[in-house]
């Protein structure tokens, strides 16, 4: 399993938070007041040019120096290897190549009047979820903040190029386990939610985890303003370990205790993901165990039909089983949504991202 790491020194302008950008300008003898103009250019324009005539001479010189050949902070611009649109007309997937050749997948999901970006936080994933294509492929490395931010920008620019409104929601549910890359993820979210830039509301950001207890507790104690989504999928340790081998490290009693701490400390609802797999976790007894596990917690449960992957032979639950499962959860007092399958024909659905 990959270990949490501190973020490396910034190597791109997109690695810098607004306050860090001000400090860099100050250290270079440029008045920090210029930071706002540069921030707008970075995050509100379709393209940021180092020789932007809107920049006053001190700022222009600094930008040209740090983003030019051999500069400290080149612009983060991943190459687009593939751009696939689903036949559902609402899902679009990008395969993006990073500077070292690693690739990640990023998805735009369209809804009436709004769009959501699903971004990756690692190249690959070490959590090993058996039904997830990313977990089947293994782990390569953590992403830097700028590499996460660059995915959001790529989606934003793609929407703008088609004359559509910009992103409203952001979910960190792509490749990787966000809470194992905690510092980089939180830095990236500070950047994309900053009001003078992309200005995605923190309440419209969801961080997904398969149950990294230290990260959940850290989010609680730091009172991070983002939604927490737990990929649960089973309500006993034996059943969960069969689906998520890495869950041995944090057994259910520790995980649920951490989630209760999160909801009680932050006052925020927990969002629980449950991938419905025929004959594995879709029976009434599984629903009953789940309601007992979450009893008394402020939780919304999202039921997700299993999406096909090459490395897993399981099948999705029938519509009848899914609706029965949903009804049992609702009868127990839990808000519960049965998700629609999206982007399956381009392998853009939950659990299908692989980075190839």
Short description:
With 356 residues, the protein is of the alpha/beta class.
CATH topology of the largest domain: TIM Barrel
CATH class membership of the largest domain: Alpha Beta
Let me know the number of strands.
12
**What does the overall shape look like?**
globular
Q: How many domains, in number, for the residues?
A: 2
**What is the H/E order?**
HHHEEEEEHEHEHEHEHHEHEHE
State which percent range the strand residues make up. 15-25%
Whole-number average pLDDT? Answer: 94
CATH superfamily of the largest domain: Aldolase class I
What spatial order of strands do you see in the largest sheet? 1-2-3-4-7-8-9-10-11-12
Total helical segments: 11
What would you report as the Rg, rounded to the nearest angstrom? 21 Å
- Under the CATH scheme, the architecture of the largest domain is Alpha-Beta Barrel
Helix % is 25-40%
User: Terminal Cα separation, in Å?
Assistant: 21 Å
The computed structural class is: alpha/beta
* Largest sheet features: 10 strands, mixed
Which runs of at least 5 residues are low in confidence (pLDDT < 50)?
A: none
For this entry, give a set of tags.
10-stranded mixed beta sheet, TIM Barrel, 356 residues, 11 helices, globular, two-stranded antiparallel sheet, alpha/beta
Tell me what the structure shows:
The chain has 11 helices and 12 strands. The protein is an alpha/beta fold. It has 2 domains: 13-67; 79-346, Aldolase class I (TIM Barrel, Alpha-Beta Barrel), CATH 3.20.20. The model has no long low-confidence stretch (mean pLDDT 94).
